[in-house]
Amino acid sequence: LHSDIDSGDGNIKYILSGEGAGIIFVIDDKSGNIHATKTLDREERAQYTLTAQAVDRNTNRPLEPPSEFIVKVQDINDNPPEFLHENYHANVPERSNVGTSVIQVTASDADDPTYGNSAKLVYSILEGQPYFSVEAQTGIIRTALPNMDREAKEEYHVVIQAKDMGGHMGGLSGTTKVTITLTDVNDNPPKFPQSVYQMSVSEAAVPGEEVGRVKAKDPDIGENGLVAYSIIDGDGMDMFEITTDYETQEGVVKLKKLLDFETKKSYSLKVEAANVHIDPKFISNGPFKDTVTVKISVEDADEPPVFLKPSYIFEVQENAASGTVVGKVHAKDPDAANSAIRYSIDRHTDLERYFIINAEDGNIKTTKALDREEIAWHNISVFAVEVHKQHQEAKVPVAIKVVDVNDNAPKFAAAYEAFVCENARSNQVRPFIFSLPPEIIHNPNFTLRDNRDNTASVLVRREGFSRQKQDLYLLPIVISDGGLPPMSSTNTLTIRVCGCDSNGSLLSCNAEAYILNAGLSTGALIAILACIVILLVIVVLFVTLKRQKKEPLIVFEEEDVRENIITYDDEGGGEEDTEAFDIATLQNPDGINGFIPRKDIKPEYQYMPRPGLRPAPNSVDVDDFINTRIQEADNDPTAPPYDSIQIYGYEGRGSVAGSLSSLESATTDSDLDYDYLQNWGPRFKKLADLYGSKDTFDDDS
C-alpha cells in the first residue's frame, strides 16, 4: 500500500486491520508492503477483507481516510475426491439383463469447481470387470454380463475410482468398495439324487406311522426352493400317503391303512416333487418338477388273533334250561403259522356268570335260566388268545338278547279303586282302565263288560247299596293275555259305597259323612215326627198349667191343636229327602265319635270303639240304628248301666236343635220363652203362633 502524500521521509505510518490482520497478514508500516505469515488454504477460507490507513507517525493522526480491500485465495488442486461411504452394499437378481442398474456411488471434491478442473471428477471401475461397469459421469454401476448365476457365484466385490482434473494425468483420485450380491430367482427345478428309493414297514404298523423319507434337491433358496411332494401313481396309493416337511424340504411317506403281510408283501409308488412357486420369466427352464420310484416291502409281524366279525349278536329264550347254546364266536391266527386259538369270557362283563364258553370251539352256553323281565340284554366280552403265545390276544363284544316268552300273567298297572253311589241304579257304568284285556268272573253286585281295547267297564247289577250294611266291596277280576301259552291272574278291584247327589257326583265316602248325613226311610221319619209331636203336646200342656192363664185361650178353627198332628203326618221325600229330619240332632255329641262318658264315675282310660261295632253312615232303619247302639252299650265297659234309650235323653253340649224337654222349667215360676219356635221352620209355625210371646200373638191378631 502507498499513499500519495508519502514523500519517503518516514513521517507516514501504515496501519492494517480486519480479518487475519496481524496473524495471517502483516504490513510494513514504513513501506506499506503486505505479507502472509503462513500458508493459506482456500478450502478453509476463500477470501479475507482488510482495511488499511496512513497516519502521522508522530501524532497517529490519520492523513487519509481508511481504504478497504479484499484478499482472495487462489485455488490449486490440493484435495482428492472423497466418496460419501467407504463401503457400499447392493443386490441385483441373478440372470438380470446387461445394463441393469445396481447402485449409484457419489464422490465430492473440496477444490473450487469454478476454477480450472480441480473439482471435475470422472468415475472408473478398478475391480469387478467384466461382470459390472460404471458410468464415468454419474457413478451408476450396471451389470455387464448376461445370465449371471447365483448358484455359480453369489457375491462380487467391485472397486470404483473417482479422479479429478477430468481424469487427466496429474489429477487426484479416491476409491470405494462395493459388495454386490446376486439375489435368487426360481431358475432351477427340483431334482432327486437317485431314481429309486427302497423302504420297508412292518405289517403291525398303525396308520399314520412314518415309513420313510425322500428329498429332491433344489439349488434355489427361500420360496423359490420350496418343494411339494405327491404320489401320482403306483399300487400303493390307497395304502400310503406322503406329506411335506417344509423345514427339511423332505417328503415323508406314511402308512394310510393297515397292512397284511399274508395278503400283499410289497408296494410301489411314484412320487413327484414340484416347485411351489414358479417364475413365469423362467418357465422355459422347466419343467420345475421331478419324479422318483419308491418301493416298499411289507415285513411279517406276529399278529394277535382276529375275530371273523367285529361284534356278535345272539338271541336266547328266557327260562331256557341251563346249558342252552347261545351262539358261537370264531377267531383265527392271521400269521402263516396259524396257531390254535383258545377262548374265554371277560368275567368283568359277566359278574353273575350267566354264561360259559367252550375254550376250543367258541360255543357260548347258559349256566342258568334267564329272565327277560330282570335283564333283557347281556353284554359280555370274549377273549381269543394263541395257545403258544399268551400275550397275543383279541377281544370282541358279544350282545345276547333274552327273547321274551309268555311267563307273566297280566295284572293291574296300579292299585285301582272305584266307588259306587248308594242310590246307583242297575246297569250304571263306572269307567275303569286296565292294562290288558280282561276276562270276567261274575259278581252278585257288579258285572264287568270287556271293551276290547285293553279296558273294561264295571256296571252295577242291583240297586239299594247302603254304607251301614256294607261300605266296601272287593271285586275279583281275572285278566288274561293272548300269549302262547296264555297267562292270567286274578286282581282285586276295591269299590267303596259313597254318598252322591242326584247327578251321581261323589259327595263323601268316609264314616263321618255317613254319621252326619244319614239317610232315613219313610217309616223311620214318620216315627221320629210322631215322637216330636207327642213331646211338643206334653210341653204345651205343661206350659198351659204353669201359666194358669185366666183368659181363655182363643183357638181359631183353623188353628186347632189336633190339626198340628195331622199337619206333620206327611210322608216326606223318601230316602233322598235329607231335609225332613236329621236323627243326628238326637244323638249325644260326645257319642258321635264313639265315646260315651259316664256320669257316675270318672273313666280311667279312653275307650276306643270296636271297628266292627261302629255305626254305618246314612242309616235307613231306626231299628237297626237302635239295636246297634244297644249292642255297643252292652259291649262297652265304660257305658252307663241303664237302658240305652237314656242316651237320647242326655242333652249333651251344643245340640244343633236345642233341648226339647220342659222338665227343668217346672222348678221355676218364670214364664218360658218360646220365641225360638219361630226358627223351626214352617212345620212348627202353628206351635210358634200358639206359644210364642204375647206381643207376637197380639201383632198377629
UniProtKB/TrEMBL annotation:
Under the heading InterPro entries, the entry gives: Cadherin (IPR039808), Cadherin-like_dom (IPR002126), Cadherin-like_sf (IPR015919), Cadherin_CS (IPR020894), Cadherin_Y-type_LIR (IPR000233), Catenin-bd_sf (IPR027397)
Q: Which CDD domains match?
A: Cadherin_repeat
Which GO BP terms, alphabetically? adherens junction organization; calcium-dependent cell-cell adhesion via plasma membrane cell adhesion molecules; cell migration; cell morphogenesis; cell-cell adhesion mediated by cadherin; cell-cell junction assembly; homophilic cell adhesion via plasma membrane adhesion molecules
User: Molecular function (GO) terms listed?
Assistant: beta-catenin binding; cadherin binding; calcium ion binding
Tell me the compartments it is located in.
Answer: Cell membrane
Q: Which keywords does the record carry? A: Calcium, Cell adhesion, Cell membrane, Cleavage on pair of basic residues, Glycoprotein, Membrane, Metal-binding, Repeat, Signal, Transmembrane, Transmembrane helix
Would you name any one GO CC term? catenin complex
Residue ranges annotated as transmembrane are 524-545
Q: How does it sit in the membrane?
A: Single-pass type I membrane protein
The protein, known as: CAD11 protein
